[in-house]
Amino acid sequence: MYKTCFKAGFMRIFALLINFKLIMMFEKIGNNAGSVWSALSEGELEIKALKKATKLTEKDLNLALGWLAREEKIAFREVEKEVYISLA
């Protein structure tokens, strides 16, 4: 009986921690998307220049771009294997 109660309590705490971590991750992605938006408000940028302007890691930049792309806030175009991004 005690093991069952302990396990159930542990699982609830574990679920809360997972939810908290997800919320914090979404908040970080949203903040990074704001940084990308601000950088693009100056005009179209090549992806390397955008990374340099925002000072984000490649992973964080890609997550922010995915967030903005899902909301149809940015546009992509490719010229000679270089990717350019602008506000939609």
Strand order of the largest sheet: 1-3-2
**Major beta-sheet overview:** 3 strands, antiparallel
Q: Report the order of strands and helices.
A: HEHHEE
**What is the percent of helical residues?**
55-70%
Straight-line N-to-C gap: 59 Å
Helix count? 3
Strand content: 15-25%
The best one-word shape is: elongated
Secondary structure tally: strands = 3
**Uncertain parts:** none
Radius of gyration: 19 Å
Nearest-integer average pLDDT: 88
- From the helix content, strand content and strand pairing, which structural class follows? alpha+beta
Please explain how this structure is put together.
The model has no long low-confidence stretch (mean pLDDT 88). This protein is an alpha+beta fold and 88 residues long. A three-stranded antiparallel sheet has the order 1-3-2. Strand 2 (74-79) and strand 3 (82-87) form a beta hairpin. The longest helix has 39 residues, at 2-40. The relative contact order is 0.13. The chain is elongated. It has helices at residues 2-40, 47-54, 58-70; strands at residues 45-46, 74-79, 82-87.
